[in-house]
């Protein structure tokens, strides 16, 4: 088995339509079995990083102009998106992107498009239902009639159907109530522990993300401006101020309580 990490981005640069540069020299790693977060505000480049890995840039006239995307040491940034899925990479995009006229089960089956083991696909649908009990009674309902939280569960379940080794998650908390977000992140944690899936999570909800992952990268304007273990990032004043919602007063109060 190779000693290379599950995923490595080397000095990655991405441009849209050949002129709009979005990523400027991004380098990051996702070790096997680990969970890594990309943090940043809207427009920082988080979604573009994930699309660079799954190569969904093509649909938006984007392309890698410099650097490399490597899966277990092998470059994948020039591959067709379907071939990237076959290599074990599943991408849950921002906004869920389900087929609204298809039922829950039919949407799940679309995640297994690259598989030929019919019995295994059927068994995995039931496995998804075990992860997401709320979907059991909704399995025959069209996705367009589901709540936002239920749609996010279907989107995650569809990714599971591909039996991924690397799961890319783009803003899974977006538009969801706090209790639903808590449930979704707990399911992601269970997936990692039970399936051994490596996870790269792009998320604005830094508190939730840093509670889940081992390591994080902070993006601003297409650059990595800060990185480190999750427990260290949670203690960083800039992270606490801008991403965890703690202002100067709260930070100083917390520091005073810890260091009287």
Descriptors:
single chain; 260 residues; alpha/beta; Rossmann fold; 2 domains; six-stranded mixed β-sheet; four-stranded antiparallel β-sheet; 25% strand; disordered C terminus
Tell me about the biggest sheet? 6 strands, mixed
The strand count comes to: 10
What is the CATH topology assignment of the largest domain?
Rossmann fold
Named at the architecture level, the CATH assignment of the largest domain is 3-Layer(aba) Sandwich
Q: If you compute it from the alpha carbons, what radius of gyration comes out, rounded to the nearest whole angstrom?
A: 19 Å
Strand content: 25-35%
- Percentage of residues assigned to helices: 25-40%
Structural category is: alpha/beta
Residue windows where pLDDT falls under 50 for at least 5 positions: 247-260
Number of helices: 10
N-to-C CA distance: 51 Å
| Widest sheet, order of strands | 6-7-8-3-9-10
Number of domains: 2
* Mean of all residue-level pLDDT scores: 88
Level-1 CATH class name of the largest domain: Alpha Beta
SSE pattern: EEEHEEHEHHHEHEHEEHHH
Q: Looking at the structure, what is the overall shape?
A: globular
For this structure, what is the CATH homologous superfamily of the largest domain?
Answer: P-loop containing nucleotide triphosphate hydrolases
């Amino acid at each position: 088995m190779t000693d290379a990490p599950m995923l490595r981005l080397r000095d990655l640069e991405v441009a849209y339509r050949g002129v709009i540069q979005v990523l400027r020299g991004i380098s990051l790693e996702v070790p096997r079995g680990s969970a890594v977060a990309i943090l940043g505000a809207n427009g920082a480049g988080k979604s573009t990083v994930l699309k660079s890995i799954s190569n969904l840039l093509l649909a938006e006239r984007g392309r890698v102009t410099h650097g490399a995307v490597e899966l277990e040491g092998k470059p994948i940034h020039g591959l067709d998106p379907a071939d990237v899925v076959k290599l074990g990479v599943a991408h849950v995009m921002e906004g869920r992107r389900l087929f609204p006229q298809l039922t829950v089960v039919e949407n799940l089956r679309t995640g297994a498009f690259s598989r030929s083991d019919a019995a295994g696909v059927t068994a995995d649908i039931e496995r998804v239902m075990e992860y997401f009990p709320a979907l059991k009674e909704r399995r025959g309902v069209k996705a367009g009639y589901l709540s936002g939280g239920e749609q996010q569960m279907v989107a995650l379940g569809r990714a599971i159907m591909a039996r991924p080794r690397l799961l890319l998650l783009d803003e899974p908390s977006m538009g969801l109530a706090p209790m639903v977000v808590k449930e979704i992140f707990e399911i992601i944690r269970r997936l990692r522990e039970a399936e051994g899936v490596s996870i790269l999570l792009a998320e604005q909800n830094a508190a939730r993300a840093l509670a889940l992952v081992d390591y994080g990268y902070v993006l601003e304007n297409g650059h990595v401006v800060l990185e480190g273990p999750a427990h260290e990032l949670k203690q960083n004043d800039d992270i606490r101020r801008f991403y965890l919602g703690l202002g100067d007063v709260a930070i100083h109060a917390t520091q005073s309580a810890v260091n009287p």
